[in-house]
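Standup notes, protein team

Yesterday: finished cleaning the Mytilus galloprovincialis set.
Today: B box-type domain-containing protein structure.
Blockers: none.

Input for B box-type domain-containing protein:
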Amino acid sequence: MASNILICGTCYRRSKTIEAVKYCTDCEDGFCSECLDFHENMKVATSHHVIDIKVVDEITFNISKFCKVHSDMVLEYFCSDHDALCCRSCMANDHRSCDKIIPIEVAAKDVKSSIMYEEVITDVCTLGTAVSELGDKKKKSVSTLGDSKVNYQQEVQYLQKSL
């Protein structure tokens, strides 16, 4: 794992700092081995997806599973007409006339093998390379600027002495 250590969320809420060994993507929380055992044996969490904690560092963004309008409602549907995720309340209120509302699981099926996904991956790699190149150019510019500063200071000192 990188420099960030994820603490068990359950232990943290009990004022303990124990390192997490697994991460539940549904709870959006880390678990130590003891709390993980309880989590896996709770009926409500049997369908949750638990991943290795080392993978969490590779996750670059986090999408909330809860509706922004109805914070107590879970996002369950995807509206193709509006290209938006929605909960049951939003679906009934705002997307009643929409034709293409499907469960998120159906919309996400085979997404990793789609052409659009491959294009996004390629674009992200290209952007990563561009950011890296810009960082290198910045370092060179700062270095060159520092060298120029030293040269100009020497020239000023030389001129002062000659005057």
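Follow-up from PR in the comments: DSSP finds six helices and six strands in the chain.
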